[in-house]
Amino acid sequence: MGFQAFVMSVLLLVGCSAQNEPPAEPPAPAIEDATVADVVTDDAQVIVMLGDSLTAGFGLPDAAALPSVVERKLTEAGYEVEVINAGVSGDTTSTGRARYNWSVASADPDILVIALGANDFLSSLPSSLARDNLSALIEQSQQDGIEVILAGLSPRFEGADDSLEAEYAAIYPALAEDYGVPLYPDLMAGVWNTPSLLLGDGLHPTAEGVEVMATGLLPVIISVIEAD
Predict the structure, then answer these.
(1) 48 - beta bridge partners?
(2) What are the backbone angles phi and psi of residue 9, rounded to the nearest 5°?
(3) What count of other Cβ atoms lies within 10 Å of the Cβ of residue 58?
(4) Active-site residue 204, yes or no?
(5) Cβ distance 69 to 214 under 8 Å?
(6) Separation CA 85–CA 152 (nearest Å)
(7) CA 70 → CA 45, 76, 79, 190, 209, distances in Å?
(8) Rounded distance between C-alpha atoms, residue 14 and residue 16, angstroms
(9) Which helix (H) or strand (E) holds 82?
(10) From its phi and psi, is residue 117 left (phi > 0), alpha (psi between -120 and 50) or beta?
(11) Which of 52, 106, 120, 204 is catalytic?
(12) 20 to 30 A from 96, CA-CA: which of 30, 84, 86, 214?
């Protein structure tokens, strides 16, 4: 099986099918009667993680979701941070872009981790659309003075030779080079092919799997924190 088998499995991973068009209005924030910025402290470095169910923590308690684990590990390493979970199952680059203002800008973050794009492929949207949306997210973030980290997904299996698959696989390293942003190539590195680190569906990480994901992502985040 090739990249297509990997991406089709992500269809189950994200929890719901993406729509071809973004919603007319972004969904209401999860935090009622407050912007995201209301829940962070003045002294901490603010990190927003914008993604789909891998970021949201599908099937796990909030404390075991990737942003919470990243925050704990950074705190244990001596960094004062607030890591905000802006993951929504089923999100595409379009829906992620549509909610930038309240999911990202309202937090006034120092760092944004973008982990979007798989659902665009699942909807057979042109790779140019996904790239345009990711480019817009990066450009807007940089205009707002936010450091960006781009997190991609590598094929679970070898043999990505279909033209659309190849186009999507090439988006992340190309954007990282074009905009000079750090790239973490595979958010699920070390987890995909380890059954003990996956839930019963064989797709979503267990709490232990999230620990592995966070450990892999941590050095990239630390490098950006220390570069400031």
Answers:
(1) 84, 112
(2) -65, -25
(3) 20
(4) yes
(5) yes
(6) 17
(7) 13, 10, 11, 16, 13
(8) 6
(9) strand 81-87
(10) left
(11) 204
(12) 214
**Length of the chain as a residue count:** 228
What are the structure tokens assigned to 201, written together?
Answer: 């569906």
Q: Report the amino acid identity of residue 17.
A: S
pTM: 0.81
Which of 110, 147, 116 lies closest to 50, judged by CA? Answer: 116
Which residues, in sequence order, are bridge partners of residue 46? 82
Q: Is 201 annotated as catalytic? A: yes
List the chain pLDDT tens, one digit each, 228 residues: 444 444 444 444 444 433 444 444 444 344 333 334 444 445 789 999 999 999 999 999 999 999 999 999 999 999 999 999 999 999 999 999 999 999 999 999 999 999 998 778 778 899 999 999 999 999 999 999 999 999 987 766 555 556 777 788 889 999 999 999 999 998 889 998 899 999 998 888 999 999 999 999 999 999 999 997
Q: Which of 144, 162, 178, 201 is catalytic?
A: 201
Catalytic residue among 52, 53, 68, 94: 53
